[in-house]
Amino acid sequence: MDSEETRHPRAGYALTLLLAVNLLNYIDRQALYAVFPLIKSDLQLSDTALGLLGSAFMLCYMLAAPLFGRLGDRYNRAHLAAGGLVAWSLATMLSGMASSYRMLLAARSLVGVGEASFGTVSPGLVADYFPREKRGRMLSLFFLAIPVGSALGYLLGGQLGQAFGWQRAFLLVGLPGLLLALPLYLLAEPRRPGGSSDSSAREKLLPELQRFLSNRTYIHATFSMAAMTFALGGLAQWAPSFLNRGFGLDVARGSMLFGMITVVSGILGTLAGGWLGDRLQRRTPAGYLYVSAAGFLLGAPAMVLALVTTNLTLCLSAIFAAELFLFLNTGPLNTVLVNVVAPGRRAMGFAINIFAIHALGDAISPAIIGFLSDRWGLSGALLITPLAVLLAAGFALWGGRYVADDQRLAEE
């Protein structure tokens, strides 16, 4: 058995600190989308150019992830995460100093590089602090940062942007990350020396990649997450603009409403997904995957309703339902990745996963939606996203056929 089977004495502190940093991760990421209308007006941009701001971030994020994944399986993960935190915080503040589209595009690209360092190593850090039977709930708590941080990004970005302008909004949301860099740097590394970690450090890159390609559960979970990321990444970036254009809501009110819906539905959905996944996992090895698939199948029709209705109350209610169901997958799918990958390969596992889900997901969906929006209108362009969610459900269900064997191999 590996070292993960006992809880680390500072597990609670580590989870709290990593959750706080992950909140800042999503605040700095999502604040951009709250001020899209302000940037569009100020810099006179097309929707295609706006979409490329998000795509450039994701392109750099996914390209940097394999490098940090390789490093994360060899060196202290807390040090890598702290360096990434400093880098993306400074780059967010640099976004606030941009006076042209090119400068803003470059700054958002640097944010992606910094966040890649944290994103590749942090889930494995959380997992190694806790025993296997608690991972679903603990990773769900860690990934509460997605809805809560995203909501805060929309709220802070919208309110600060409306009050002070989009440039000052970036300066203000980027500053807090610098305060947590030192505590994160000093966080204990829970992975013990020896075993699979040392063997993976000696393994060449090509054989290591082949190991992941032969892991059928890992591949299916990754494709499921990629389809989900295509949908949610596109929606996250364009939702405030959709509410602004479709219902006449100003930047502050639209971002506030969407942020409030995201934080409530996200907390409920993420916690429920972790709890349901842990319970169903006791009955079947595919429990986590089945919970994720059910959320996708229930969320897709709600997404369609939100995009086609002309009633604001019904639209907001449908958005709440869609996000509630879609967030069920957050803890379970990430727990599947942890459970089917050996401890010494987890940083690289998450790095490859990050590269794939963003290359096939939100690195391309914002620009695609922006391109289609210039031709069909925004609501029509967004209708491609429920189709991607149904595809995510199919991959999750398919992957359930292999999970028992792949988890057993990871434990050997």
Structural features, described:
With 412 residues, the chain is an all-alpha fold. 81% of the residues lie in helices and 0% in strands. Helix 1 crosses helix 7, helix 7 crosses helix 8 and helix 13 runs parallel beside helix 15. It has 21 helices and no strands. The chain has a single domain, classed as Growth Hormone, Chain: A (Up-down Bundle), CATH 1.20.1250.20. The protein is globular. About 1% of the residues have low confidence.
Q: Which characteristics define this entry?
A:
globular, Growth Hormone, Chain: A, mainly alpha, 21 helices, 412 residues
Unreliable spans: 195-199
Which percent range fits the helix content?
Answer: over 70%
CATH homology superfamily name: MFS general substrate transporter like domains
Instruction: Specify Rg, calculated over alpha carbons.
Output: 20 Å
CATH topology: Growth Hormone, Chain: A
Percentage of β-strand residues: under 5%
Sequence of secondary-structure elements: HHHHHHHHHHHHHHHHHHHHH
Main CATH class: Mainly Alpha
How many β-strand runs? 0
N- and C-termini, Cα separation:
8 Å
Return the structural class. Answer: mainly alpha
Average per-residue pLDDT, rounded, comes to 86
Number of helices: 21
Count the domains. 1
Biggest sheet overview: none
Shape: globular
- Which architecture would the CATH scheme give at its second level? Up-down Bundle
